[in-house]
Design brief:
single chain, alpha+beta, 5-stranded antiparallel beta sheet, 5-stranded mixed beta sheet, about 55% helix
Amino acid sequence: MNISVRFFLGYFLVLGLAAWFVLNTVTDEIGPGLRQVREETQVDTAHLLAELAASDLASGQIANGRFSKAVQAVRLRDPGAQIFDIQKESFDFRVYVTDANGKVVFDSEGLHVGHDFSRWNDVARTLRGEYGARTSRDKPEDPATSWMYVTAPVLWQGERIGVLSFGKHNVTLNPYIERMTGRIRSSGLVMLMISTIVGVFLSAWLVRSINRLIAYARDVSAGRKASPPTDGGSQFSELAHALAAMRERLEGKQYVERYVQNLAHEMKSPLTAIVSASELLEGEMPETERQRFTTLIQEQANRLYLVIERMLQLARVEQLQRLEDHQALDLAGLVGQAVEAHRVALQKRNLSVKLEVVSGASCHGDAFLLQQAIGNLLDNAIDFSPAGSAIDIRLEKTPDSFCLKIRDHGEGAPEYALPHIFDRFYSLPRPATERKSTGLGLPFVREVAHLHGGEAHFRNHPEGGAEVLMEIAAG
């Protein structure tokens, strides 16, 4: 299973369980909480009514006195109360009064007058001087007939002469319970949706960061240039830097080993020739022979110097992960400067240059590296061009890049050599001298092209000669 799916499912499971627990706890507590609040209000109401009923109960007029008439008058009123979005259209209460023995002497519904309520919990506890309350159903099998009663003692001249019980129908709380439960569930659903969106975003962010690390690791394993991702948070950045440091150490060790081997191989032949020639020079020989061996030593020494210089250049660009000097450049101008720099070499071989460049060839890059790369391509073209021929140079614009094409009119490269043209130290004999170069020029060109977001290619032109293409990202 994809890690993003696992992370999201885990996040959603934890969030869902927490939301379910909280919502259930809150909704389960709404009903009891409202009943507790209402009971507290009923206590106040019961004591107030008990005080109003005291004089009528003491004078024996509780059934038809002012208290009784006031209770009945209230029932005729229209509350006209808008409580939030709930309209209260009637009064839902009951009041009954008992004497000191628990016998009902007043009932607002007229149903229980004369009944003995002394055993009811609310009346019995109040008669004993305690707080009395009870919840009862008119029909034991029907929960919708449940009422809650709260009692208060009726006092007259310091004596307890009866009990007043004030009741409210529990059904009247249902609209408020349903309203609050609905609002809480709606808010919980919205919160869950928002949290889900956040979870999706976090999952996507996490997966993107991991995928960037995977892509970086793949680039490293494939030997491609890549910068460690650093925008995935501090921990991901530290991991990326740790991978980059490990890569640099491993590559550095392998790089040194490989280059030492290559350098030793390339330096072996020139050094052997120099040692052999110097040993021969120690003896007596004709001046012409001495001059020939001296020239050989100079040529081999120059070859060693060139190999070392080219290797240092190539090593520098191969170790770069990104350009250090990044500025706007006129690519056409750089090509023109390279041609002028090789004017003397062109004249020695009686070579002409056909230059075609697109206008407005502007790119961003390292001018020094690009000049060296273009110079290497011109060196190769001069070496492989027949005397008196032409070198074609074209700078073209593609949708995303500039393409520099340099073609000579020589014999081209053999088929067997084409797969190895960009290998280090691979070189073909120059037609004019039959000598090989260092084999480091084209690898250098390819590395410079990579640093500039492009690529280098070599092919035999259909009309003859060899053509090298160097692409550079535009912009």
